[in-house]
Amino acid sequence: MQIVFDRYKAALYRIYNRRLPANPSLQGKTVLRISIEPDGTVSACKTESSERHDATLESEFVARVKQFNFGPKEGVKTITILYPIDFLPAMRQVG
């Protein structure tokens, strides 16, 4: 799981960084509930909890994670995980 999130980390940072100019103190943790199918596609993703209280940012994260592909795994059923995403303004990346 972590390898896939690391691969897509830049896309999540771009979403976060676009929101920072409007709210430079935007920070905190979001926990996503993600269902992953045996073929690696994301069949469901929603915000489980968020410290940021920015509905636009959360919906953009959810939409992007729905495009992730974790790769097929034979003999595995659909799994649902909780995945935390933490962002701090000091962690801004250019990208």
List the helices and strands and how they pair.
Elements: H1 2-19, E1 28-36, E2 42-50, H2 55-65, E3 79-87
Helix pairs in contact: 1-2
Beta-strand residue fraction: 25-35%
Kindly provide the radius of gyration, computed on alpha-carbon positions and rounded to a whole number of angstroms.
14 Å
Widest beta sheet: strand line-up:
2-1-3
- Uncertain parts: 91-95
Largest sheet: 3 strands, antiparallel
Terminal Cα span: 22 Å
Q: Quick check: average pLDDT? A: 89
Helix content: 25-40%
Series of H and E elements: HEEHE
Q: What structural class should be given to the helix and strand makeup?
A: alpha+beta
Number of helices: 2
- How would the global form be characterised? elongated
Number of β-strand runs: 3
